[in-house]
Design goal:
Largest sheet of chain B: 8 strands, mixed
InterPro entries (chain A): FAD-bind_Monooxygenase_sf, FAD/NAD-bd_sf, Flavin_mOase-like
Oligomer: heterodimer
Distance between the termini of chain B: 33 Å
Organism (chain A): Pseudarthrobacter enclensis
Helix content of chain B: 40-55%
Family (chain A): Belongs to the FAD-binding monooxygenase family.
CATH class of one domain in chain B: Alpha Beta
Protein name (chain A): Cation diffusion facilitator CzcD-associated flavoprotein CzcO
Number of helices of chain A: 15
Strand order of the largest sheet of chain B: 1-2-4-3-5-6-7-8
Keywords (chain A): FAD, Flavoprotein, Oxidoreductase
CATH superfamily of the largest domain in chain A: FAD/NAD(P)-binding domain
CATH architecture of one domain in chain B: 3-Layer(aba) Sandwich
Strand content of chain A: 15-25%
Helix content of chain A: 25-40%
CATH superfamily of one domain in chain B: Alpha/Beta hydrolase fold, catalytic domain
Structural class of chain B: alpha/beta
Largest sheet of chain A: 8 strands, mixed
Number of strands of chain A: 21
CATH architecture of the largest domain in chain A: 3-Layer(bba) Sandwich
Largest interface: A-B, 27 and 22 residues
Number of domains of chain A: 2
Order of helices and strands of chain B: EEEHHEHEHEHHHHHEHEHH
Chain lengths: 518, 284
């Protein structure tokens, strides 16, 4: 194995064959929040033998792609950032997309990750080679071999398109909110927005002001609560810089505040009542039209779908040039969307704000394990992983933000950092014990997933009477969300232990041993 | 009480009064039941509306409402009455099986006494924002409270809010939420009788008898039982470990999830929890 001791300075002009990073210890797929965090961990451990494969031309993942007007995070920035790279300069409680992207770009640059990244290197296919005991990954930038493979390709990275009859023949402009077409002029246009989820409620207030007419096609009404946003003063930012513990105190308070919301998801009445009252009051205060009020009143238990935060969504829907359409879309004809009741909405622009492929992760169709079967096939009954990170039949593979790592209320960065700690521990174990192959047993994986399925029972996500991306539509299992406290996730999954793994070392080549039996 | 689905209620007699209890029920494979003792201003529901459901996901949890109106022949009201009420509930619901006893505020004083006097009832002891001997700072606050109470001052609830919660918590609440908290205090149960008990607490001679594995939880911004009292409890009890939570006295409202996590970790028994250990802060 070649391990370059010095960091690569520039990749410009290199051909694939002599790319010094084409054979490394670790391959990371993706340079969003989780991939960059993993890379930073490796660099800080002085592990330079890794390459990061990025399909786009820049880092940032979902915060690079989602450039729609009004794009912002609905988790507070002092919490939605790396614990190991606190940023005293957040401009406000809920930073918007450009500021979050800048934060990630600076992290990649300042931590020295750029030389490790291959841009334009979309993973076309990744296969475990049993004889070499390496992952072989094909990209348009050449083939890369790595002892370990870490997928950090996110769970909100591939746009999901609605299945509407005639949509391909729409004669106006049409695009997904995560692939915003900034060349399309929206002022003075008739615009349709399909969806009423987290992206739509940020987009609608932004474009309602200049559109001639805006029609929002809503399938089910979201619960919306007030957005308690606030711009930090110069004095506060100075304080965060000079007294980092004051920013840490805010971060801790936000974390524990989210953690205390978990009983809402377990149907504890006092908690449900409290949050329902907040949402009801917000709706009553902001929606005065009785017809609109009825359309905007959800028909499922709160928390079953993501609770949204906005102060300007309801007022935007009350504007005279905005229509909320709840009849459901029948089909598309020319430049018109036809509803199930036959009403025609003629549009110049149609914006699909219909979310992401969260349960059937596209990357899983491109990763092939020991048996030659894909991860997607292994997951045909829904995504699952031991410790939410490793998969039987897929040695030396680590999945970040894959099965059961999403959150109903909380910062996904906490989950990613927990996995970084687990994976770093596994890689260290592999180095120190000359491990060539590390594979979780099928029994351990099944047993672990059983505990998750048990915990999912009785949560509002399964019993709240809604349809959401949290649940795999193929089998009704809660496969995207973590059904317990976040601190429990860290307790269970933050520290690598070898007990559940079959370990092959260079010394015992060909004679795998069960680590748990040693 | 509606705060946890499927909870059962009942009563047990102690010293001539009926003590109401709440029981979340056995958990398959669960360890010792957790018994929660509330504080001066509370009831089980008032103090543990968040903590009880959180603990109930993994453990059998029992709570009770202390009775402070006792028959004349048993009076005057003293800590001993609360001790016998707590032990009556433990003996009825977990006979022959020692429990994890969690006391909050005045409940921590009672819990420490139960553990000292009836060690066979208590396997693990958790003292949250407790104290062992009422000091002059506490007496002065108690006295101001008494004057506001006796004069039926409108300022009483605001005074209680200011002393119960951390200054940061109060400073960062939206005004409507503060008004709701104040209204909640006004509507809360009378604390006059328990406040009289508070003034004369002194269990310092008893604590060396505590044998239970103990966790002492002190709150950094506690103005009612300032954290020095938790430091002293930690010093007094042999098999104890200490953890600080960033909160005011009202930690059950301000930081219920952190409180839950600390108790849950302690019950599950972590290696780093040796006697005498000061547990490291956990940052998100």
């Amino acid at each position: 194995m070649t391990t370059p001791d010095t960091a690569v300075t520039s990749e410009a002009g290199r051909s694939h064959e002599n790319d010094p990073l084409n054979n490394v210890d670790v391959i990371i797929i993706g340079t969003g929040f989780s991939g960059l965090g993993m890379g930073i961990q490796l660099v800080r451990e002085n592990n330079k033998s890794f390459v990061m494969l990025e399909r786009a031309a820049d880092v940032g993942g979902t915060w690079r792609d989602n450039t729609y007007p009004g794009a912002a995070c609905d988790i507070q920035s002092h919490l939605y950032s790396y614990s190991f790279r606190p940023n005293p300069d957040w401009s406000r409680v809920y930073a918007t997309q450009p500021e979050i992207l800048q934060y990630l770009q600076a992290a990649a640059r300042e931590e020295g990750l750029i030389p490790h990244i291959r841009f334009g290197a979309e993973v076309l296919d990744a296969r475990w080679d049993e004889t070499q005991e390496r992952w072989i990954v094909s990209t348009p930038r050449g083939t890369f071999a790595g002892k370990s493979l870490i997928t950090a390709s996110g769970h909100l990275s591939d746009p999901k398109f609605p299945n509407i009859k005639g949509i391909d023949g729409f004669t106006g402009e049409i695009f997904h909110s995560a692939q915003w077409d900034h060349s399309v002029e929206l002022e003075g246009k008739r615009i349709g927005v399909v969806g009423s989820g987290a992206s739509a409620i940020q987009i609608v207030p932004e474009i309602a002001e200049t559109a001639t007419h805006l029609t929002v096609f809503q399938r089910s009404a979201p619960y919306v609560i007030p957005r308690l946003d606030y711009f930090y003063t110069d004095a506060e930012r100075g304080m965060f810089r000079k007294f980092p513990h004051t920013a840490q105190a805010i971060r801790d308070e936000l974390f524990w505040g989210n953690e205390a919301r978990f009983p809402q998801r377990r149907g504890v009445p006092a908690f449900i009542d409290q949050i329902t009252e907040v949402a009801d009051n917000h709706r009553k205060t902001q929606v005065t039209d009785p017809v609109l009020y009825k359309q905007l009143t959800p028909d499922y238990a709160i928390g079953c779908k993501r609770i949204l935060i906005s102060n300007d969504y309801y007022p935007a829907l009350g504007r005279p040039n905005v229509t909320l359409e709840t009849d459901g879309i029948s089909h598309i004809e020319g430049n018109a969307v036809i509803t199930s009741t036959g009403e025609r909405h003629e549009l110049d622009v149609l914006i699909l704000s219909t979310g992401f492929e969260a349960s059937d992760l596209p990357i899983s169709h491109r990763i092939y394990g020991k048996s030659g079967a894909s991860l997607a096939e292994h997951w045909s009954n829904g995504g699952q992983a031991y410790a939410c990170t490793t998969v039987s039949g897929f040695p030396n593979l680590f999945v970040m933000l894959g099965p059961n790592t999403g959150l109903g209320a909380g910062s996904i960065i906490y989950m990613a950092e927990t996995q970084i700690s687990y994976i770093a521990g596994a890689l260290k174990y592999m180095r120190e014990n000359s491990v060539s192959s590390l594979e979780v047993t099928a029994e351990a994986e099944e047993e672990y997933v059983k505990t998750i399925d048990e915990r999912a029972q009785g949560t509002v996500w399964l019993s709240g009477g809604c349809e959401s991306w949290y649940v795999d539509p193929r089998n009704g299992r809660l496969t995207t969300l973590w059904p317990d406290f976040m601190s429990q996730f860290r307790k269970e999954n933050g520290t690598f232990k070898d007990a559940a793994y079959v370990v092959k070392t260079h010394a015992n080549q060909g004679q795998p041993m069960f680590a748990g039996g040693r | 009480m509606s705060f946890y689905p499927g909870i059962t209620e009942g009563t047990v007699r102690a010293d001539g009064v009926e003590v109401k209890y709440y029981d979340s029920g056995e958990k398959p494979g669960g360890g010792a039941p957790i018994v929660l003792l509330h504080g001066t201003g509370g009831s089980a529901e008032n103090n543990f509306a968040a903590l009880l459901p959180m603990l109930s996901f993994r453990h059998r949890v029992i709570a009770l409402d202390f009775v402070d109106e006792i028959p004349e022949e048993s009076g005057p009201l003293a800590l001993d009455h609360f001790v016998s009420q707590a032990s009556a509930v433990i003996n009825k619901l977990s006979p022959g099986r020692p429990v994890t006893l969690v006391g909050y505020s005045l409940g921590a004083v009672v819990a420490a006494l139960v553990a000292a006097e009836q060690p066979e009832l208590v396997r693990n002891l958790v003292l949250v924002a407790g104290w062992m001997k009422t000091d002059e700072q506490q007496k002065l606050r108690n006295s101001v409270w008494q004057q506001l109470h006796d004069s039926q001052s409108a300022a009483l609830a605001e005074f209680m809010l200011l002393t119960a919660f951390s200054s940061r918590f109060v400073a960062t609440r939206p005004p409507a939420e503060l008004q709701k908290l104040i209204a909640g205090i006004k509507a809360g149960p009378s604390r006059a009788r328990k406040m009289r008990v508070n003034r004369t607490v002194d269990i310092s001679a008893k604590l060396s008898a505590v044998r239970a594995r103990t966790l002492v939880i002190g709150c950094s911004d506690d103005q009612m039982a300032p954290i020095r009292h938790s430091h002293a409890l930690f010093g007094a009890i042999d098999d104890s470990r200490f953890v600080e939570i960033s909160s005011g006295h009202a930690v059950v409202h301000e930081r219920p999830a952190e409180l839950f996590t600390r108790i849950d970790n302690f019950v599950q028994g972590h290696a780093s929890d040796d006697a005498g250990a000061v547990l490291a802060p956990v940052h998100a």
